[in-house]
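Quick one: structure tokens for this chain, please?
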Amino acid sequence: MKASEMLAARKAAKKEQAVKKYARDNIGNQRADRNKLANIAVIQVQNKLSLRSGAPQDLDSKLTENIKNLMHYQALVYENDRTSVTVFEKLIRAMRVVACIYTDSDLSKTTNEAQAAIEQLQESADLSPNQRREILKPVLRLTEYQEAYGEIIHERTVSNRLVLRKRTNRTVHRQPV
């Protein structure tokens, strides 16, 4: 091996070590402050508990929400209605928040299935109502979850979900001026 080859190999090794050191120093390999992480965890638990407590939702609003969801489900069975898709996308997001608050893995799984069903329905155009019903079964299950959680979800949590929906709508669906 010649001297120039040895110098080139040494430079390459040195450059590789510099890249590894830069990556180690700058890409998430740093130790986190355990006190900060513990405080964040405590705050998250307190927020979840505060969303679980409060006055229950009134019967009229629960019934109105259920009827609205079933009407939009029926609309999706016969046609690909953009308004109904939007309603269920909002319901999916809201129920993901509820699944997080109540740590319900089955509900979380159902929201993922409902999201996949909505996406599959949008991709396929020529389906009979029976085929659409088969695809939309997870969405119908999600409305059943919403009805069941409507018995225990408090008004404050529902209003926070609505605020989250409105903020998401303003951010995601902002119209150009």
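Confidence is low (pLDDT under 50) at residues 167-177.
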